[in-house]
Amino acid sequence: MSDSVFSAVLISKDDKRQSADQALLDDDALPEGDVVIDVAYSTLNYKDALAITGASPVVRSFPMVPGIDLAGVVRHSDHADYKTGDRVVLNGWGVGESHWGGLAQRARVRGDWLIPLPSAFDEKQAMAIGTAGYTASLCVEALVSHGVRPDAGPVLVTGATGGVGSIAVALLAKAGFEVVAATGKAAEADYLKALGAGQVMDRAELAEAGRPLQKERWAGVVDSVGSHSLANACAQTKYRGVVAACGLAQGMDLPASVMPFILRGVTLVGIDSVMARRPRRLAAWERLARDLDPTALEDIAREIPLSEAVSAASELLAGKIRGRIVVNVHA
């Protein structure tokens, strides 16, 4: 195979349907950008699964290479901050949606979207973290920066067996917080406790409509679920507590009232990982490098080859996958 030819997942669409298949592409097909990367690993995120299956209109233009994450080595650079051989990581910025993404052996992107890969991790470990772990770190940063301290009480993590939840549990435990992990997968209790959860609760306790103000339980919350779970988490948050919201696995609605916010001074912080500016990204990855044990990633993530990414997308949407999926684009 020519050095200019590479393998990728390619999403196409005609008048009748959308399809996703593994394809061979040429460098000339790559979109504009000032840095070319030899991708080592990517990931399969919830948004990637939506894009691949067409379950939600995530993709903005066709054809599209999905993959909102990538880690690899700079092949060519016209950007002042990067040179050939640099190890880099990319999360978000619309790749895999409006710009070709990381589920490919090669990518061309804007250098401003990249950050140096922390020396604490190799490319595979960085993708075991991926956008999910980077988002979890942004959530923990939000709680801490808004004054939540370990002695204030337990912190709730919803969707705890997912990518965001798993790494949030690990980071919060490392920072000294008492962590309560909410999940619908009772069989995963040992997994969550190994990550650092002190208690595991059934997500059913949060999943239905509840009173607008409930018993105070949480000093902080990391929520990747949305809908009634987020509304109940807010209603149960302690006076001056903080809720970091970053996902919508249960739904994009928020059937809540203003009562937790005006009677208890609860702060609801929205976490955007896609367009977060460089200083916040660097701070999030610094926390990950400092507080996340790389060996814990072995339990959080499993590796699949690029050829299995399309089929794994349906499994992810069906809730059959725990933790993170790392995609070896050369396997």
Keywords:
Quinone Oxidoreductase, Chain A, domain 1; globular; alpha/beta; six-stranded parallel sheet; 331 residues; Rossmann fold; 2 domains
Number of domain units: 2
From the spread of the alpha carbons, the general shape counts as globular
Structural class: alpha/beta
CATH superfamily of the largest domain: Medium-chain alcohol dehydrogenases, catalytic domain
Reported CATH architecture of the largest domain: Alpha-Beta Complex
Fold and architecture overview:
With 331 residues, the protein is α/β, with parallel strands linked by helices. The protein folds into two domains: 5-117 and 295-328, Medium-chain alcohol dehydrogenases, catalytic domain (Quinone Oxidoreductase, Chain A, domain 1); 131-270, Rossmann fold, CATH 3.40.50. Helices cover 29% and strands 27% of the residues. It has ten helices and 15 strands. It has helices at 46-53, 123-145, 163-174, 189-195, 204-207, 227-235, 259-263, 278-291, 297-300, 309-317, and strands spanning 5-13, 18-26, 35-43, 69-77, 87-91, 106-109, 115-116, 155-157, 179-183, 199-202, 218-223, 237-245, 267-270, 301-305, 324-328. The strands form three sheets. Strands 3, 4, 5, 6, 7, 14 and 15 form a seven-stranded mixed beta sheet that branches. The chain has a six-stranded parallel beta sheet with strand order 10-9-8-11-12-13, sandwiched between helices. Strands 1-2 form a two-stranded antiparallel ribbon. Strand 11, helix 6 and strand 12 form a beta-alpha-beta unit. Helix 2 (123-145) crosses helix 3 (163-174) and helix 2 crosses helix 8 (278-291). The radius of gyration is 20 Å and the shape is globular. It starts with a strand and ends with a strand.
